[in-house]
Each structure stands twice: as structure tokens, then as C-alpha cells.
Amino acid sequence: MSNLTPKERMEIPRQPMPEQDPLERRANFFEVALGLTPEMALLEAERCLQCKNEPCVKGCPVEVPIPQFIFALRSGDMREAARVLKSKNNLPAVCGRVCPQETQCEVVCTLGKRYKPVAIGRLERYVADWELAQGVTPPTKPQPTGKRVAVIGAGPAGLTCAADLAKMGHHVEIFESLHAAGGVLVYGIPEFRLPKEIVRAEVEYVKSLGVQIHLDSVVGKLYTIDELLGPKGFHAVFLGTGAGLPVFLRVPGINLIGVYSANEFLTRVNLMKSYLFPDYDTPVKVGKKIAVIGAGNVAMDAARCALRIGTLQATERGEEPPEVHIVYRRSRDEVPARAEEVHHAEEEGIIFDFLTNPTEILGTEKGLVCGMRCIRMTLGEPDASGRRSPVPLEGSEFEMEVDTVIMALGTQPNPLVFVESGGLERTRWGTVVADETTGKTTKAGVWAGGDIVTGAATVISAMGAGKRAAADIDRYLSTL
Question: pLDDT tens digits for 116-144?
């Protein structure tokens, strides 16, 4: 089919992603999206018009040569397709699953002006999964430069920065506070969206480049940043610790039993594998009526995990599955989560309560959550972010019967990493001040990127920040 005309390519329909049935998947943690078949992937690749100006590349935060990898795929050269992908993206199997391509590379796809855009993310996943199945071939290692870089945090930003620096010949060591590398990829994103075996495989690729990863190593407690730059002998430090400190509503009842932060809840479910209890000894209890506050991707993940955990527990007791609500103070139009995640949540039976804001969490005499007092909202003028501000409707208070509340209202950086690190300017939100282009902070020899700079954002934006910082760190090291 490689000799098709542009008109013929445009007439090929976008290939649908095979998925688990919603009624089945709400009771398991297996991956929802099953991946394109070889026939579907080749047909989707044929849709690419191979534009000379490559708008999709400009829309990608890590500038993957998208037309080139798609051309290699449809030419049957899968090894070359994987090589092209890996030339810019160190974690393609991850990005193919969780990155919002619909608002980045795909939104500027030329084909998308009249038809549905090329499914770039699905093709990225297909090629990356093929390579993982065949065996990853790491690039040839360059001559060592003798320069040493410490990367704090093994999340998307840290892994990307470390991999790029290793490819440049620098000695890189990652210090990760948790017992597994991956950051939000292992503690935040559920198994049914991102299988952890995929994350482990991507981490192994980074390690194959020569990167050393120290687990259970809390910078700020084990070493300070100044100690890394001083006695430990590192020439530069990259901060990629993310934003793992949860934000709570300031309402009465926040300390009742049955109130979780989404961070704690998802960490218990994903990293500590509570969904496999009793094989893993980290149970997490949810009730029969669950409310998740917020409507971002984290809220969707928390709600869908709660539904699955609750369904598994209810099945053991011979009871009906739980009722799970997303409670959001704005309307559907303002929902910040990916449309695909909202669609999947609705398919699975999650109930959305829009224009609703909790004012108090209610408890029993024993301190257990038993309800939530809420007020209806309306939308007023746009706020600083451009979204219309929610305004309470006087006299519209009501109570919801719930026994579990999960707060998914955003996060901020954990302050522990900043212990004894003078000269590192931070904002009033606790994020690090860093140059948007280079990642350079106000402290000499220190760069930062990802959620620690921007606050909670996307995996691919963190990777882009790690890549830009690596390039600037390399320039800096060449002057020493």
C-alpha cells in the first residue's frame, strides 16, 4: 500500500484501539487498552502524509522525528522505527500509553484539519512494545568524559535527563527515595493504564546506558544538595523529585477515618499492590459509596482504582459493587483530565457530580466518614488560568451519603529535598524557580525540571524538561 496517493491515504479510517469490555475491566487491574494489531498498525501508518514541514514534531515536547519512525514502520523496518523513536524519547512505551497526544503532536497533524489525525501515540506504543518483545539494543557508549552528575528522583524527568547525559559520556547516578524506580509511573498511574512491567523494562534500558540507580535514598536526609556538589564529588545536580505532597480541602472533617489523599491511596494501590492483597500485605479499605474530589487525571485514576478495589472486596462478601462519584466544582467543559480517561471512567460506571463543592465531611461518633455536606455552584467570570470561576449558589446546600472520600486536588513539592540548600529560589507554592529553556536554577551547578518546577503536569512535559536540562548540563560540563 506504500504507493497510495495522498487522497487515498486520507480515506483510510483511523484505526480504533481494541479495549477490554467495560463490565469486565471494572473488576480487574489488567490493561484497558490492548494495543493495535500488526495489520491495524500498518494501516494506521499508511495514513501519515509525510509532511515536509513536520508540524507533529514541533508539537512533541521531546521532538520525536514522528514522520521518520512512521515511515520506517510502514516500510517494515521495525528496528529502524524503534531506533528513530529512541533517538529522542528514552521512554516510548510509557509515552505511547499515558501522554496526551491529542493536545500535542496529534492536534497539529495536517490530516486532522479535515479528518481524524494520525494515531501517533498508538503507533509509538506499537513500535515500543515490539522492541521490548524483541529485546532492546542500547546504543554504543561514548568515551567517558570524567564528569559526574547526580540526578535526584527516578521519575520521567530524572530518567530522561540521566539517559541523555549517559549517552553523552557522563557518569550519572540517580538517587530515588522509593524502593522502585519510576516515580509517578510506579506510584501514581494504575496498572490498568500503565503496566509496571513496562516501566521496569524502560528503567532497565536507562540502566543499560550505564546509569546507576540508588533506591531508598532520600536526598535531604541521606545527603544534602551541597554535600552532593561538595564531598560526594558531583559536578552538577538535576532535581527531578516531582510534586508528591498532597493538597487538601480546608474544610471540617478532613481528619476523619476514611479520608485519603489521592497520593496515599494510589501509592497503596499501585506501588504497594494492595489490589493483590493478601499476596501483598498492604490492604486498602474502601466503602460502598466513594467520593473523589477533583476531576484531573489523578482523580480519574483514583476513582477507577477505588471502583476496582471496591468491586473485588464486594465480590468476596457477596455484595453489590460500590458507587463511585467524581465531585467537581466546575462543569464538564472545564474538566482538566484527558477526554479518553473521562470516557473510560463513564464507561465503567463512575458517576460525575458537576458544579458541586464539598463544605464539610461528616463523621460518626467513632470518627468514621458517613457523609459530605456540599453546595451547588455556578460559573462566574474566568479566573487567572482562563477557566470560569465557580461561585456558590446561596441556599443550595445538601448532603451526600458517602463513607470514603479521596482528595485529588493537586500536589506540591516535598520540602525535604531543600534542606540546607541555600541559594535555591522557590516560589510561594514551593516549586523551584528554573529557566524554562535550560532548567538552570538560581543555585550554581543545579538544574531542575518536571513537576518540581511546574507543579503537577504531564509525563511528556517532564521528560521534555529533563531533556532540555541534560543539554544545558552537558554545555556546562564542557567548560569545566
Answer: 999 999 999 999 999 999 988 888 889 99
